[in-house]
Design a protein that fits this description.
Distance between the termini: 24 Å
Radius of gyration: 12 Å
Structural class: alpha+beta
Strand order of the largest sheet: 1-2
Number of helices: 3
Shape: globular
Mean pLDDT: 91
Number of strands: 2
Largest sheet: 2 strands, antiparallel
Length: 71
């Protein structure tokens, strides 16, 4: 997806999550992941290599940095 499509999809996923829906997002784009999820799992070779949960006060940038450090 291009940037505008990513932004629209992220907005729709956040809206569904706010309504109480469980959302599963698979992506290599950590910016999109950090802007949508509260919990992320990093897979390497099909095996869980790391996991992170967003803290209440954590910004998207700080969460993205934490996600990048999992690998």
């Amino acid at each position: 997806l291009d940037r505008s499509g990513q932004a629209l999809l992220a907005e729709l996923l956040r809206a569904e999550a706010a309504r109480g829906a469980a959302v599963l997002l698979s992506s290599h784009d950590l910016d999109v992941v950090a802007s949508v999820v509260d919990r992320a799992v990093l897979l390497h070779g099909g095996v869980i290599a790391g996991e992170a949960r967003r803290r209440a006060e954590q910004s998207n940038d700080a969460f993205r940095h934490e996600l990048a450090g999992l690998g």
